[in-house]
Design brief:
single chain; about 425 residues; N-utilizing Substance Protein B Homolog, Chain A; Rossmann fold; eight-stranded mixed sheet; binds S-adenosylmethionine
Length: about 425
């Protein structure tokens, strides 16, 4: 906590250091919000410091190896987060100036009992980094992703595409919204451009999401252009019953309600379901909400369609969650693959004969996507492929594969001239016989 007489800029750094510390310890990154830092300028700087340290994580590993001969001191509280953040400022955020990086790093450590004794080391390292900036900045681009992941992606998506992944990691994600209804005047006040179907894009995010026009009135919800694809592929007439099996926080549920389906939204996480409730209420949308484990959910009435947006490694979201590429281990993926298969088998059980199943994951890993679709066809009784036709993705035809599945990734060109890329998603469609 910062105190009254603390130097200017320290309070926002203490919040940023703490956010980075918990992400380094394995938590997902979520942007620092207004409840943590009320001043929007401070908040913007704090989020920039944390996200830059995360986007440059691979390069900073090398810089730290270079500067810290004996390795990271153990049990050193906020030392590592402070060091990474201050190096990120010195190397990549020159507009914030060197002085605050050096001075405030030491001040921050002085407020952490576990790290105070390392203030001298911090100061020496940052001064050396400042002197040797040119050498440290030589950009070893491959370091943006862990080597094993980069190699796997290069063989799946090609070297050129992975070069675009790197650019997308550094650029971050624009803000995509799904609109409740087409409204050119709303686009104008939002400063948004039409992207694909009912998705629009805002390039310059200088306002908090809840301060944007139309938020309070429930005229749109935040949803990446790729995340908006699966719910559009249900291919059932309005009024059909649709089960959204892993529904929270409800981006896809909202699309299903908008399409006129009778929607049941299920999730096993009470906190996330509460967010879904709040989100639907803001949009004036209604769905039946069920808190249950999708792995053994056996509804009395079967459904015309099921959307299974399965829990996954989320590597396709690295533009907004740069930590996923460093936090995910092969063993995490193996555990999720098993759960996804259980959920796929149970999802098929929830369908009427002739019913449609959409399986999707925001992962770039074939083990969670392409291989799972093949597994479902050979292991889940009664499921057959219901290929997605290129025309159904109007504008993004190139994402449809020869097997009639959809594969998006941040290296894929978007149909409009809008700058920026899209999340990695895999989508497969099945029919129950
Ligand atoms: C990828 S997120 C869903 C995002 C959501 N479909 C949307 O569009 O906003 C995966 C969800 O699966 C839920 N989940 C994970 N395991 C589950 C299980 N066994 N049963 C039900 N839900 C589960 C998580 O709580 C999480 O909300």
């Amino acid at each position: 906590m910062a105190a009254k007489n603390d130097p200017a800029g320290l309070a926002l750094r203490l919040v940023a250091i703490e956010r980075l510390r918990i992400v380094l310890a394995g938590s997902n990154f979520s942007p620092i919000g207004a409840s943590e830092l009320a001043d929007s300028r401070d908040r913007a700087i704090a989020n920039r410091l944390v996200t830059t340290a995360l986007r440059r994580h691979g390069h900073l590993n090398l810089v730290i190896e270079n500067l810290l001969e004996r390795g990271m001191p153990s049990k050193s509280g906020s030392f590592e987060a402070t060091l990474r953040m201050s190096l990120a400022q010195l190397l990549y955020l020159p507009d914030l100036g060197d002085h605050s990086a050096l001075y405030l790093a030491v001040e921050a450590l002085r407020r952490d009992k576990r790290a105070t004794h390392l203030a001298g080391l911090m100061n020496a390292m940052l001064r050396r980094a400042q002197k040797e900036r040119e050498r440290l900045l030589e950009p070893p681009q491959p370091l943006l992703f862990p080597e094993a992941l980069r190699k796997a992606w290069q063989s799946a998506y090609g070297i050129e595409a992975v070069g675009r992944f790197a650019a997308a990691l550094l650029a971050g994600a624009p803000l995509d919204l799904t609109l409740k209804a087409a409204d050119p005047a709303l686009l104008e006040v939002l400063g948004a451009e039409a992207l694909l179907a009912d998705t629009v894009r805002i390039q310059n995010r200088d306002k908090a999401v809840d301060a944007l026009p139309g938020y309070a009135e429930g005229q749109w919800w935040v949803q990446d252009v790729a995340a908006a694809l699966p719910a559009r592929l249900i291919d059932r007439p309005p009024g059909a019953t649709v089960l959204d099996l892993c529904a929270a926080p409800g981006g896809k549920t909202a699309q299903l309600v908008k399409a006129g389906y009778a929607v049941t939204a299920l999730d096993n996480d009470a906190g996330r379901l509460e967010r879904l409730r709040v989100n639907l209420a803001r949009l004036h949308y209604a769905a039946t909400i069920v808190e249950a484990d999708a792995a053994d959910y056996a509804p009395e009435q079967k459904f015309d369609a099921v959307l299974l947006d399965a829990p996954c490694s989320a590597t396709g979201t690295f533009r907004r969650h740069p930590e996923v590429v460093w936090n995910r281990q092969q063993s995490d993926i193996a555990g999720r693959v098993k759960l996804q298969q259980k959920l796929l088998a149970q999802a098929a059980e929830c369908l009427k004969p002739g019913g449609v199943l959409i399986y999707c994951v925001c992962s770039l890993e074939a083990a969670e996507g392409e291989s799972q679709a093949a597994w479902a066809l050979s292991h889940v009784p009664g499921l057959q492929a219901f290929p997605i036709a290129a025309e159904e993705l109007g504008g993004l035809e190139r994402a449809v594969t020869g097997e009639g599945t959809v594969r998006t990734h941040p290296g894929l060109a978007l149909p409009s001239k809008a700058a920026g890329s899209l999340d990695g998603f895999f989508i497969a469609r099945f029919r129950r016989i």
